[in-house]
Amino acid sequence: MSDTATLVAGGPGPESHHPVAQAIADGVLPGRIWLYTNYNCNLACSYCLTESSPRSERRELEPATMIEVARQGRALGFTGLGVTGGEPFLLPWLPETIVTMAAELPVILLTNATLFVGERLERAAMLAGHDVSIQISLDSHVADINDMARGPDNFDKVVEAVPRLIARGVHVRIATTTSWSVDDERLEPLRQLVTSMGVAPEDHLVRPIVRRGRADELSLGVEARPIDIPSELTITAEGAFWGSFGPTVRGGRLDTDLLLTRTVLPLAMPAEVLVGLLRGMPAGNDARLGIR
């Protein structure tokens, strides 16, 4: 049986001799896989990579595919999962799917947190006690500035949702996307606000706007070459991409400059393509630019 066939069939752990597992162990391939659950969203942020909005095409990734990516990812030696959108919590089946995935690998789940009221809040609480972190976007300590980019009342909804989730035992991270330098002192009041809500400093991620998707149309953010984009394997309903900044949308059309394969399963196929591209490639500027 081939290495790929063995991995697809499952097993107790990663096959260390497989080229993907070796590339992860060598630090050539990042250990996290990203999955885009959907492209539609209840917001329409000014710098959105995927031009997501309530009118966007759903481009929904099937839950069975997500679970299989998690299972095969563990077998290939990957160490974690990131789940993003669109807004993932628009999908009614999401919490149960994330719990199943977290039994395979730790999950970071991105959300705008504006839907966490009533039943949706209690369903999000299902994630407590599992290896899941909810990562919530918050870009300024000033409500009007934050909402200018993200939408009306976004700030108020986030600062209400964060302590409610923490009170229910959910691990919360905050992600700030900024047009300033990631270590700019003007971000200090926001850092203090995040800490006051009960989020640890190490769980506050600050990153620049990347000029792709809607940000490119508005000439926002840092320009990044493909090599500057973290090379995490990223899975969507339309194929596998180089990095979570890869499957962007401009003018309603999916960018394919960072498309690896249209096939996503078996996962070894796009993973091996990515490893082949990375071997011998010089380092990019993602660390210097703060892209993560």
What does this molecule look like?
The protein has 292 residues and is of the alpha/beta class. It has one domain (17-289): TIM Barrel (Alpha-Beta Barrel), CATH 3.20.20.70. Helices cover 32% and strands 17% of the residues. The protein is built from eleven helices and eleven strands. It has helices at residues 3-9, 19-25, 63-76, 94-102, 118-124, 143-150, 154-167, 188-196, 214-217, 268-278, 286-289, and strands spanning 32-36, 80-84, 107-111, 132-137, 171-178, 204-208, 233-236, 239-242, 249-250, 253-254, 259-261. The strands form two sheets. A nine-stranded mixed β-sheet has the order 6-5-4-3-2-1-7-8-11. Strands 9-10 form a two-stranded antiparallel sheet. Strand 9 and strand 10 (253-254) form a beta hairpin. The protein starts with a helix and ends with a helix. The relative contact order is 0.15.
Q: Largest sheet, if any?
A: 9 strands, mixed
Could you say what the CATH topology is called? Answer: TIM Barrel
Strand arrangement across the biggest beta sheet = 6-5-4-3-2-1-7-8-11
What is Rg?
18 Å
Mean pLDDT rating = 88
Under the CATH scheme, which architecture would be assigned?
Alpha-Beta Barrel
Question: What is the helix content?
Answer: 25-40%
Overall morphology: globular
Total domain count: 1
| Distance linking N and C termini | 37 Å
* CATH domain class: Alpha Beta
Low-confidence stretches: 1-12, 285-292
Query: In percent terms, what proportion of residues is strand?
Result: 15-25%
Could you state the order of secondary-structure elements as H and E? HHEHEHEHEHHEHEHEEEEEHH
Total helical elements: 11
CATH homologous group name: Aldolase class I
> Structural class of the secondary elements?
alpha/beta
